Amino acid sequence: MRKAGKISQEKLAELAGLHPTFISDIERGKSNAGILTYYQVAKALNVPLSELVKVPTGKIDKKTEAQIAEMAMLVRKLPKAKQVIFFSVLKGLLTGLESIEGK
Fold this sequence. Notes:
Elements: H1 9-16, H2 20-27, H3 35-45, H4 49-52, H5 62-77, H6 80-101
């Protein structure tokens, strides 16, 4: 997108508030960027963030979607300390499930 817009790495870095070397490293796959960095780049290029970051979408049936919504509602009602515990346990559970699927 940068090249298509005929913008130099230096100009993009200036517009995004980043270092030119960092832009170069990202483009060459030498450095990973966080979502905030991608947001800054998208804003500098005047394109939606979704143009830079493609998030895979999986098919979820309506029942599963409803269960996820219900769980989100329940978690929102928890005190912050319990939310932290919940997400820690959930992350461990998901990691365990991934390792089982990998076997």
